[in-house]
Amino acid sequence: MNDRDKPFVIDRRRLLQAGMGGLGAWLAGRWFSAPEASAAEVKPGADACIVLWMGGGPSHVDTFDPKPGTKEGGPFRAIKTSAKGVSISEHLPRVAAEAHRLAILRGMTSREGSHERARQLAHTGHVPNPTVDHPALGAWVSKKRGDPKAALPAFVSLGGPSAGGGFFGRGHGPFVVREPGRPPEDMAYGPGVSATRFDRRRAALAALEDSFEKETHSAAVSERRVVFDQAVRMMRSPAAAAFDVSSEPLAVREAYGDTAFGRGCLAARRLVEAGVRFVEVTLDGWDTHDDNFERTKRQMGVLDPAMSTLIRDLAERGKLDRTLVVWMGEFGRTPRLNGRGGRDHHPAAWSAVLAGGGVRGGITLGATDLIGEKVVERPVPVADLFATITTAMGLDPLETVNSPGGRPITLTDGGQVVREILL
Fold first, then answer.
1. Contact predicate 67/61, CB 8 Å
2. Rounded to 5 degrees, what are φ and ψ at 158?
3. Which residue among 229, 247, 322, 411 has its CA within the 20 to 30 Å range from the CA of 255?
């Protein structure tokens, strides 16, 4: 049994330590002016962001950067979309119908080819560094644009763990729901526990924490209290119903697709309407080292209805202009097949897609070579993608804070805004 699992009756100190990460020092931000990246030059378009995270790294040449007629391009056809001159995979027909709302970045590039390092880079905007626990993008949004007294967390992850609050602390990390579309677990009081009894227990716990804090001078106590208070507010708020998609009309649920990812996308729409600032929805299964074409086809069968309906639904409800939707994974996949009919990791060239939230729709930016192996036009590093997302959300991509070790850390790692795709 680890410390987190031990009950209170065994060891008071261990309980109070359980679930508490090290609390970062209070962070003092300062603004840096830089003409090439200043958020002040771009009018913020987004109040919220929904990231559709493709865990494992999707093949760009089989999705948004098709290479028909080449050996490496495989058997999938490219189809026309609602955006003039833009073609994508035949297995994304519904997304193709929404392409006039999409900005497709075909020049994404990085140097991180391992899942762990690439995921960290694509979630934080920084190359992994063992001396700094970088906050996820969602944690930055929570810290800078979240309401600490809101009923719902500012940062929610549906179907996957996402990345954490880093040195901002757990209070800005993701609230993780493993089964999207359903109410979170443990939202009700325990058996025989009334609201009054629950509050008495809270008061008793607070007294113990006060004693522990006085004895140890641990700043982690205040961090635990932040997380605990967030949980209680959510338990007691009608806004928590946003997680549960069962109240949506059957036709709406069917449009998103009867999958965990589809329900996650529908829940994401409901959550941003309820005031959540940052939602990540995970679709794992893109690590296609074997049987790439059949597996990728299945993945697109899940993605197509969910992504297209989310974008259309937001637009029809008047929310897309203020909600930035981002489709991405940790890297692309090799154009050349391996001996198992699969595609391997390929960070040198891949695609990302954005919609809504001040993004110019109906365009592609950047290009790869004939087979999709190298970026030959308008490369976009991950830091630039982050600078663009944060600018669209009204954050300064060059804002700097001090890590607990005193190291100045910028929101993005020197990224420059991709202005061509912003309105």
1. yes
2. -110, 115
3. 322
Helix (H) or strand (E) holding 66: none
Q: Residue 271: is its pLDDT beyond 60?
A: yes
pLDDT for the residue numbered 67: 98
The number of C-alpha atoms within 13 Å of 273 and in the hemisphere containing its C-beta is 17
**DSSP at 413:** S
CA 393-268-116 angle, 5° bins: 75
Radius of gyration of the chain (CA): 22
Cα–Cα distance for residue pair 280/388, rounded to 1 Å: 17
Determine the average pLDDT of the residues in 144-171: 95
- CA dist., res. 414 & res. 384, Å (int): 8
Angstrom CA distances, 387 to 150, 372, 419, stand at 26, 25, 10
pLDDT of residue 23: 30
Please identify which residue in the block is written with the tokens 């810290």: 143
Rounded-to-integer distance, Cα 209 and Cα 16, Å: 7
Comparing CA positions, the residue from 144, 139, 107, 95 lying closest to residue 355 is 95
Query: Taking a C-beta distance cutoff of 8 angstroms, is the pair 281, 50 a contact?
Result: yes
Amino acid at 1: M
The owner of tokens 């637009």 is 315
The arithmetic mean of pLDDT across residues 218-224, rounded, is: 82
Is residue 386 scored above 90 in pLDDT? yes
Strand partners of residue 29:
none
> What is the rounded average pLDDT for all residues in the chain?
90
HSE-CB for 179 with a 13 A CA cutoff: 7
First-to-last alpha carbon distance for the chain, in angstroms, is 54
**Cα separations (Å) of 408 from 5, 123, 132, 133, 292?**
35, 19, 10, 13, 42
For residues 68-79, give the mean pLDDT: 97
Give exposure, 249-285, as e/b (b: 16+ Cβ within 10 Å): eeeebebbbebbbbbbbbbbbbbbebbbbbbbbbbeb
Whole-prediction pTM value?
Answer: 0.89
User: Which token pair is 224?
Assistant: 């635990």
Strand pairing category for 278-284 and 332-333: unpaired
Residue written as token pair 């009894």: 197
CA torsion, ordered 151, 156, 161, 163, to nearest 10 deg? -110
DSSP, residue by residue, 165-182: -GGG-GGGS-EEESSTTS
Residue 17: the pLDDT is: 41
- Say whether pLDDT at 139 is over 70: yes
List the domains of the chain with CATH numbers.
Answer: 21-187+194-421 (3.40.720.10)
